[in-house]
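Table S2 (text version). Query chain:
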Amino acid sequence: MVLALFTLLVLQLLQFRFGYRLTADDAMFLQFIWQGWERVWAEAGAVAEFSGRIGHYAMTPLNALGALVAGSTAGRIILLLLYYAAPVLLSVYLGRLLAPGRWRVAAGFMVLVLLAVHPLAYEHMPPNAYPLQNTLPFLAVLLARLAILQWPGAHGFIRCLIYALTAGAMLVSEFVFMFATALMAVDHLCHSAWPRNGAQRTRILGLYVSPFRLLADSVVVLVALGVYLGYRWHYPSMYEGNDPSGILNPLRFFATALFHIDAGTVFHRLPGFDFAAVAAGAWLVAGVVALLTLLCASLLLRQLPLLSVRAATGVLLAGGILMFYMVAPLAATARQQQWCLEAGVCGYLDSRVAFLGFGALAYALLSLVLRAAPAQKQKPVVWVSAALLGLVAGVNYAANSVVGADMRHVVSPWGRAEAMACGAGQNAWLTDEQMSAIDPGERVSMHPQVDRRVFWLEYMNFVRRSGMCAGAAVDNPHTLNDGFYVGFTSWSSQAPGLLAGGWSAPETWGVWSNGQVSSLSLPLVKGVHDQVTALRVHFSPYFGPSVKEQAIDVLVDGKAVARWEFSQSTYEGGDCCWREIPLPPQRSGSPLTVSFAYQSLRQPGYPGEGGDVRELAIGLKSLVLLPSPHIIGVDDVE
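Corresponding structure-token output:
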């Protein structure tokens, strides 16, 4: 039995191992990592203060670590084992509460149900996104609750440590807080229904409770809630995802909550699913999964300690309420309602949390069904129930195989970038063809403001310097350079070497000029840039109260080659311009100096210009080195 359950777990784990770094946030966390842990801590503090959520001091480092570890197969296996440990431990915990005498059978059945209906999915859902954010805190809470259950008479100091661990984990995220409080509620409800031997009980609000346990849990909740609210009071949230205005529309609120719960299961994904896309080999394994699930279910159901009708009804009612409790905060936001009800994207982090309750619901439901069935019909009911669960498990495996194949394609750019980084050898300059081949379809999700080409270059440099090229020795450990493109974002390690003077500090989008003249120093390398005859620059002129017109004289090695003119009425608003700069056929050598002289500058102190003291003229975003001139007209606007 244990071997069969383990086999089913391994088969599902193998399907889940391909998808990683599936969200734009995962890519962003990786960017933090390659700038060092100091950047991770700085971002953690900034996001915590922006969102008013103290948990980001732990969440951001956990997410950064998860994004890093997910880059290797061994790392993903470790992440998946940690992830699956949570439903296993939860099933053990619930089994010990609901069926203390035969908890192993009850726990095994709940694990089997969770495996059967667990979908592989995108939608910001762990373990393929945010693999550690919920996993480690959930494990901490579960281990703490199991320790309290196992050693009720532990030394006072040990119990204080256990409760402190719970409180600390609850501060990581609202999901952990709700998960922990839900477990506390289940514990006290079960203790009221089935008192433990020798346990002291007091009647409060019609329920028998353990006064010390209730007091200890209440203190933990109040401490965690007090710290959370105190931080939120000190740093009011500016994050729109925290806006609960959607609760004013009860119908949308309840619909979103129910869809979020449903999205945690395979049933949400079956309508419209193309089963013709399932490979023949996947159908074969799906048949094995269905058969193993059927056999396990039939054995477990025949030994299952049935809950009483009253207890089973209570589990169904309490379980449903607690699952709704898990998804209610996000369902109350207008943004999640729009994503779910208009865009049809209902799965989210909370779906994976609420999903954990389906094992207990199935246990309670089967208890009711088997108790209602006459003795002579219980065996057929067991086999029908086992067959249905096996069918669901097989279909789930088949559906997951299609999603897994797509994920394998989506994440392939990571492997191509790593292969290029480790195989570049002495070639420190990468071509357009090489850079474009990494992610031609832009399948890897990134935030809109991210310069994708800079991202992949910096990722490859991170791979080279972090020791990830073991087994594929790097002949030249020096930094790789993009030979024909430079993005002037602050994420770029290549850009600062080109900014010769007259520039502000680079920002995430690009860099502002500062002063009357700004210059670029371009290292044109023999054998790499011999065919380069023009430069294409992407920039936006600055317009404001003190600047309505702009003229820019462009000089190459001190010689004027172009003059560009702009007016606020024509070019105001967002992404403005691409312009090309012809290079002289005979060049004195490297580096080449390209200068921009501005007719107008932003005037600090001018009414309406704010407190910025910089004399701005243009915001430079990128530079492309072209092998042949394709001059863009003066009025060409992107």
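Notes on Table S2: The first helix runs from residue 2 to 16. The longest strand covers residues 559-567.
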